[in-house]
Design brief:
The protein has helices at 101-106, 188-200, and strands at residues 12-17, 20-21, 33-36, 40-47, 54-60, 63-64, 69-72, 77-80, 88-98, 112-119, 127-135, 141-151, 158-163, 166-171, 209-220, 238-246, 261-262, 269-270. With 284 residues, it is mostly beta strands. The strands form 4 sheets. Strands 3, 5, 6, 7, 10, 13, 14 and 16 form an 8-stranded mixed β-sheet that branches.
Length: 284
């Protein structure tokens, strides 16, 4: 009896340490979250279960890591450990800030990861018609009712450049003007009021500290890319978003008591009581 197997129709992306996926916390109403230790290097695991060649473009901390992306072939699984433009590994670093609303607004994109997937563009020649030109006995042009058919698309909105498993593009149409004010006028009344307010706020308010984390550049990576020549759609067909947070922000449950620890230097698994890594000797 023939069995039908359900095959995922969209690519996937996961966070891994030492090529082993770490636990994803998916609380209802919140962005799916991974918790990492300070100084921990990690990989982005990309898998393409579709029959199409796709392009993966990555944003970290709310900004793209490159104008290009990584080409993932059908059925291919890649553990990307580095930035596209520089051979540095992904590293999660943390620091402390105050928990004021102003600061929370400034760090709202810290640890954000977004992966967008684009399908390869397949060009199908489209016929365009142009009048058939002939000449009369006086050497003048005349147009017949029949048309010549010319195959091909002579409109190009994007100039492309693909890096082997890497793709780079420059959009020449998406240009915008920036305007700056040239006025140096200052209202003395407003100035005086601001000075008065600044003198009044002399008593400091003690605020609670909050640990936040960003993805930075870590150690050197030996992962290499090849350049290929392909074109992809302008809009993504699938998008995945995650949040990376320090372990200090994690609220443990009974299911989290058996937390796996890894060496921040080499990624080897650590025991709960280990003070040093048994593989490289790095302090835990």
């Amino acid at each position: 009896m023939k069995q039908n197997y359900l095959v995922p129709s969209v690519p996937s992306a996961n966070i891994a340490v030492n090529k082993s996926r770490i636990k994803l916390y998916n609380k209802k109403g919140e962005m799916p979250t991974y918790y990492l230790q300070k100084g921990q290097e990690f990989q982005v695991e990309l898998f393409n279960p579709t029959s199409d060649v796709v392009l993966a473009k990555i944003d970290l901390n709310g900004k793209p890591i490159s104008q290009g992306g990584l080409v993932v072939n059908p059925g291919q699984r890649i553990f990307l450990d580095r930035y596209i433009d520089i051979a540095k590994k992904f590293l999660f670093d943390t620091y402390e800030v105050s928990s004021s609303d102003e600061v929370k607004k400034a760090i709202e994109h810290n640890g954000d990861i977004k992966i967008e997937f684009y399908k390869e563009r397949v060009y199908i020649p489209r016929p365009t018609y142009r009048p058939h030109i002939s000449w009369d006995t006086n050497g003048l042009k005349k147009f017949s009712s029949t048309n010549d058919i010319v195959y091909g698309d002579n409109t190009s909105l994007l100039r492309t450049n693909i890096v082997g498993s890497y793709y780079n593009s420059t959009d020449e149409l998406n240009m915008s003007n920036t305007y700056t004010s040239t006025s140096n006028y200052v209202d003395s009344t407003i100035s005086t009021t601001l000075d008065f307010l600044s003198q009044e706020t002399t008593s400091p308010i003690k605020k609670q500290k909050l640990e936040t984390g960003r993805v930075e550049a870590g150690s050197d990576s030996d992962q290499k890319f090849e350049y290929v020549s392909k074109t992809f759609e302008y809009s993504p067909f699938h998008t995945i978003e995650y949040k990376l947070l320090p372990v200090s922000q994690k609220i443990n449950t009974t299911a989290d008591l058996n937390v796996k620890l890894y060496c921040t230097q080499c990624g080897a698994k650590l025991g709960k009581t280990d003070k040093f890594c048994s593989q490289c000797g790095h302090k835990a």
